[in-house]
Amino acid sequence: MKQVFKRPESLVDVPTHFCPGCHHGTIHRLVAECLDHYGLRDKTIGVASVGCSVFMYDYFDVDVVEAPHGRAPAVATGVKRSKPDHFVMTYQGDGDLASIGAAEIIHAANRGEKLTVIFVNNTVYGMTGGQMAPTTMIGQETTTSPYGREEESAGPPIRIAEIMAGLGGTSFVGRGAVDTPKNLMKAKKMLKRAFEVQINNEGFGFMEFLSTCPTNWRMTAEKANERIADELIPYFPLGVFKGDK
Amino acid sequence: MYFDTIIAGFGGQGVMLIGNILAYAGIAEEKNVTYMPVYGVEMRGGTANCTIVVSDDEIGSPIIQNPVSAIIMNVPSLDKFAPRVKDDGFMIINSTLITEEDMKPFNSKTYAMVPSRDIAIESAGNEKLANMVVLGATIKKSGIVQLSSMEKALTAGLDKRYHHLIDANLKALQGGADFV
Amino acid sequence: MANKELVKGNEAIAMGAIEAGCKFYFGYPITPQNEIPEYMAKNLDNEGGTFVQAESEVASINMLLGAGSTGSRAMTSSSSPGISLKQEGISYMCGSQIPGVIVNMSRSGPGLGGISPSQGDYFQSTRGGGHGDYRTMVLAPASVQENYDLTMKAFDLSDEYRNPVLVLGDALLGQMKEPITRNKYKKKEYKQDWILDGAKGRERRRIKSLYLADGDLTDHNWMLFEKYESMKKDIMFETKYLEDSKMVIVAFGSVARILKSSIAMAREQGMKVGLFRPITLYPFPTEELSKVADSIKNFMSIELSTGQMIEDVKLSVGAQNTTVDFYGRPPGSIPSPDEFLEEIKTIYEKRIK
């Protein structure tokens, strides 16, 4: 009998700490499938960020170094300059990348570092308990925007993929979601391109994923999944922003 | 043997260069040397100075409050550094820009008025070598290094682009030494 | 002559780094250390290395963390305000046991302060500087030759202990020129069984500082403590005139340098004064200084600050019926040997009847 579904080799066989309905697990799987697909498991150096994403070093069966909050693109720059023949990726959430690490991501991208950055945008600080993030939607209630995010005082949610696409150093920029099988397949295709630009030495690959956070959104897994299409995609449009083949 | 000097003037008078050349002369004679430039905000306003120490023994401070000697290239430097020169020290004064009138407040000090520009033209045919003239005078006065070491010093201290000028530099150094 | 070059202090640091096999430099401009990145930018590529001008001090220390995690010899340099920004990364490097050389050609603070020499970063350098219970080894050169030699040594110590090593100079040591001999680096081999180079034919490796399981972080901290203790075998210091001295001046870096002149002047005037110069500020030569206090009872700490190293001096000799006096000179200008001589004279006359 032919096996049609199995755990990617680049994923360690352990239960994750992610909450039910969280998309991190699915996104991890897509990343691991790409690592397998391109035969990168034993030549990858991952850079872990701070937040729920930090535990990538428990889940990916690759070498990983942990970066301070927001600094993963700088750490990855040091790694890649030192090991230019290796595949170097960061995996960062929205608080990490879009807030405290805004300078590091902009400049690593603009230098055209040969990196692949996976950006998971769930519109909230997950690990610390649901505070407002730079990507939090207008009106969204969080523990630090208890009356809903107000544009007047907090500004609008920041669209990172669009900023990345505007930088001269990026080779591929895409935004995807994994809320439906159709979106997932599209997202995987884009993720592959974000891998390929590094593998082919073209430049900086950036892939944003819209993700749920049912716990901090205070929603059921199902409702959280629906919110992706109802609220997030209209503001954070999916697709390739730069570097389509 | 121990010697120290502060060399001070406008930027562009070659003050830092002769400091370096003096240091290289010390190295050529296997002495210990330190060269301390002013830097950063102190350099704004176009004045420049450096302190050079040459010694047979280990050098402690590269900063000297009361130097044994000074090479003074302009009036602002005279006012700033002349009061600091030791009473039994000496100054080489660039009389191209500094008059006897300017020297009146410092009459108690020992100094030599050196018309550096004129000597540079007479001895080396190049007025830009006025800095070498005052350095030559200082070397003669102090005896800290030999003039015969200066070719080595210039070879080591001058950018290769200027090596064709080493002979002229040596003539200017000699011109300054002969004057005092 | 052939083997002596007149070199600026900052350049000697860069030369020493390249001679020691430093392949990566990450930095950000700040006075008075700019000759280091400038030298690296000009020369590192020719040596098969890479220079990156980072977007910030924060980014440059993290680039160092990244390069260090792959086992490459790498360096960053800055001056006091920039070193403050690097503290986050230094803490992570210590926690994750990642080697790297950090140079602080310090200037004066607090805040933007000024660009004159200062020793106000002694606490920051020797007490960790960032968050958490950690230490970096600290080397304090006092000449341009030492800038060169100790930078080379910093790479070895950093690899040996898998810990960042700080070279603490100041504006004076960075800007002055002295003749140096370019001593050849003798290559040593260090274990690289921890570096990240892809999990090929081996288990994956994880370099991290996060320990959440009950008790793990306690063990981790004790392990690091043992490591810091073991650094004591590499303690370095210099002494002068201790054989007949009645009073010992303790000073480091540029101040010790200036004091060599002051002490020589004091001895000419008949004062029996000696010098104890710690070269490793962490670990501090506590036992060595304590031995000095067996026979000499009067100490004086002289610093370009309002008093930081004096705490370590007191911890070293305080229990031995000694006096520890202090002359502190906050930064702003460079003190002269004469200024120090006056202070030494005052204390000497007070203590030595």
Q: Proportion of β residues of chain B?
A: 15-25%
**Count of folded domains of chain A:** 1
User: What count of helical segments of chain A does DSSP give?
Assistant: 10
Tally of contiguous helical segments of chain B:
7
Which pair of protein chains has the largest interface, and what are the residue counts?
A-C, 35 and 41 residues
State the domain count of chain B. Answer: 1
**Unreliable segments of 5+ consecutive residues of chain B:** none
What best-fitting shape of chain B do the alpha-carbon axes yield?
globular
What is the count of β-strands of chain B? 6
Main sheet: strand order of chain A? 2-1-3-4-8-7-9
Can you describe this structure?
- The complex is a heterotrimer of chains A (245), B (180) and C (353).
- By secondary structure, chain A is α/β, with parallel strands linked by helices.
- Chain A has one domain: Thiamin diphosphate (ThDP)-binding fold, Pyr/PP domains (Rossmann fold).
- Chain A has helices spanning 24-37, 56-59, 72-82, 94-100, 102-110, 151-154, 160-165, 181-199, 214-217, 221-235; strands at residues 44-48, 63-66, 87-93, 116-121, 124-125, 131-132, 170-177, 204-210, 239-242.
- In chain A, β7, α8 (181-199) and β8 (204-210) form a beta-alpha-beta unit.
- The model of chain A has no long low-confidence stretch (mean pLDDT 96).
- Chain B has 180 residues and is an alpha/beta fold.
- Chain B has 7 helices and 6 strands; from the N terminus they run βαβββαβαβαααα.
- In chain B, strands 2-3-1-4-5-6 form a 6-stranded mixed β-sheet, sandwiched between helices.
- In chain B, α4 packs across α5 and α4 (116-124) packs across α7.
- The longest helix of chain B has 14 residues, at 15-28.
- Chain C is of the alpha/beta class and 353 residues long.
- Chain C has 2 domains: 4-233, Rossmann fold, CATH 3.40.50.970; 236-351, Rossmann fold, CATH 3.40.50.
- The termini of chain C are far apart.
- The model of chain C has no long low-confidence stretch (mean pLDDT 96).
- At the A-C interface, β1, β2, α3 and α5 of A face α3, α4 and β9 of C.
